[in-house]
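call fold target=Transposase IS200-like domain-containing protein
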Amino acid sequence: MKFVENEIFHVYNRGNQKQPIFFNRGNYLYFLQKVRYHLFPVCDLLAYCLMPNHFHFLIRANSKTVAKIPNPNPLINNTAFSKELGKMLSSYTRAIQKQEGFTGSLFQQKTKAKQVSGTPADGSDYVSTCFAYILNNPVQAGFVRSPEDWEYSNYRDLVGLRCGDLCNQEMIREELGFTVTTIQDLLGRHIPAIENPALF
């Protein structure tokens, strides 16, 4: 994964062969603890959503995200974010292997990161589209009727229904200009991801 400081990225991965990665509520909460420990210090998290067999993050890369970690192999682009993400997924995988009694990969081999900020040629606002896509994911999948009904995203924090601080609320409001009203409007007119290949 290559990151550019001050740009916004959609980071995502899913279970190996689309298998579940979360088996109960405790798994979701444990994963979020891992996010706080490993990723919170090395990026500005703007949105997240954990789904039964995949996860999405919207992050803003900062100086810590792109900090280079020494590596004897010059072909490996090892940043602080990539290293911490790898440690997080490995640690979580070991816990699930122990819980479920299996060996092998839990996640697909490579987590992907797609830059969504900048000014594309067609003038599209991919940051807003990706933000809405991530938070609307449980609704699109048919798990809930409203994003506020899904516990494992930061939507409730954004609209004042919960006091979570995993995401950078100030940056969401001041730099992205997203208020409760604009967030609700974004999700109301969200276009399904299949029409937005630029997000992946």
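return ok
The beta strands are 8-14, 44-51, 54-60, 112-115. Residues 129 and 156 are 18 Å apart (CA to CA).
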